[in-house]
Amino acid sequence: MRAVFERYEAALARNDVAALNELFLPSANTVRFGIAEQQYGFEAIAAYRRAAAPVHPQRRLLRTVISAFGSDIACVSCEFSDPSTPHMGRQMQTWVRTVEGWRIAAAHVSLSNAAL
Asked: Which pTM does this prediction carry?
């Protein structure tokens, strides 16, 4: 799971929209809540990715916790710093193993009220 998550983070840093879309579960039930927006369904997430600005190049993960629930479900929780905001960022993803590999079924990104 860590290697797949690191692949996701590398794609995010490069703004590799094709790789990011590949890592989301292609389902109408896939959900992504962002800092100021929300997408319901894979198509909405893909449309968001095509229009979204890249993450700040100095965005850094501060802490990552991977929790596996059996061999086919995992949650990844992290905190991150982003020079574009004085607040700590947080993200959580629920990953499911499919025949195509690990895919994100649900994601949530938010900013903490606490300053870095």
From this structure: 0.93
Within 8 A by CB and 6+ apart from 56, the residues are 82, 83, 84
Separation CA 30–CA 8 (nearest Å): 16
Q: Which residue in 115, 92, 116, 102 sits closest to 32, CA to CA?
A: 92
Structural domain range at position 26:
2-115
Q: How many domains does the chain have?
A: 1
With beta carbons less than 8 A apart as the criterion, state whether 115 and 87 touch.
yes
CB of 61 closer than 8 Å to CB of 79: yes
Reported as a single tens digit per residue, the pLDDT across 14-51 is 999 999 999 999 999 999 999 999 999 999 999 999 99
Determine the 3-state secondary structure of 44 from DSSP. helix
Query: Residue 63 belongs to what H/E stretch?
Result: strand 60-68
CATH number of the domain within which 51 lies: 3.10.450.50
